[in-house]
Amino acid sequence: MSALILDGKTLAKQREQMLKQRVDKLELKPVLATILVGDDPASATYVQMKVNACGRVGMGSRSVTLPETTSTEELLATISELNNDPQVCGILLQHPVPAQIDERACFDAISIRKDVDGVTTQGFGRMAMGEQAFGSATPAGIMTLLDHYGIELAGKHAVVVGRSPILGKPMAAMLLNANCTVTVCHSRTADLADQIGRADIVVGAVGKPELIRAAWIKDGAVVVDAGYHPGGLGDIEKDGLESRVSALTPVPGGVGPMTINALISQTLEAAELFA
To answer: Which family does the record assign (predicted)?
Structure first.
């Protein structure tokens, strides 16, 4: 068996061409506002990648950079200004923010109409209930990737390893809405190897390098790795998997490009809804 490679990098490029055609049809150019608090180099790089993606599809971007000492109140005021700016169609608050800031309060201050990164409590609730809402970008990108490659989901047992409010939990909800039977595990799950060994679909979303061992994964499974760590490591050990599993995402080049693509796609959708 040779695994189907779920190539997010190539798919994202293909989708950007379609997104650009839709942007060109709009009278007003959609604008994504990005907020970066502090000077973390990795976060700055991620924000710039999103700004670059906007440019490739003809969308506008507005970068807001705030000092490391920013308070919750100051960040909330910035979000309020962007909520009320008619030119801004989507708002991204780069995670994580400095420790003194109430990140959840700031996420939830983003207007649900502009929550294109799918981080608000209201947006999560609507998505989980099957109502219209923008999904968290990484899980939404994963679902697009699985759909593109024709990965069957209905009736399958999916194990999501990770429970963060912007990755693991929305991933589980999206898979459940797609008629999977879903088990959510995490770093403290006592029988993690046994749980993963029963999975038809494994999603690594725990944020720890190679926590999920290749030997735990059964032959023929679909493997989705949402982690990225120094040295090109993911959350899932890949040794020998390509010859045993039915499909897997590369690291890098799998989930990451689809995360950015989902963010851009949902910003465009917000603009079309405004129009």
So the answer is: Belongs to the tetrahydrofolate dehydrogenase/cyclohydrolase family.
Which is catalytic among the residues 7, 94, 195, 238?
Answer: 94
pTM for this model (two decimals):
0.95
Q: Among residues 7, 50, 156, 238, which one is catalytic?
A: 50
Residue 53 is which amino acid? Answer: A
pLDDT at 87: 94
CATH code that applies to domain 137-257: 3.40.50.720
Q: Which part of the chain is CATH 3.40.50.720?
A: 137-257
Helices (H), the chain: 8-24, 41-56, 72-83, 103-109, 121-128, 137-148, 168-177, 192-197, 255-274
Identify whether 85 is a catalytic site residue. Answer: no
According to the annotation, is 125 in a ligand binding site? no
CATH code linked to domain 28-114: 3.40.50.10860
Please write the tens of the pLDDT for every residue from 178-235.
999 999 999 899 999 999 999 999 999 999 999 999 999 999 999 999 999 999 999 9
Comma-separated ranges of CATH 3.40.50.10860 domains in the chain: 28-114
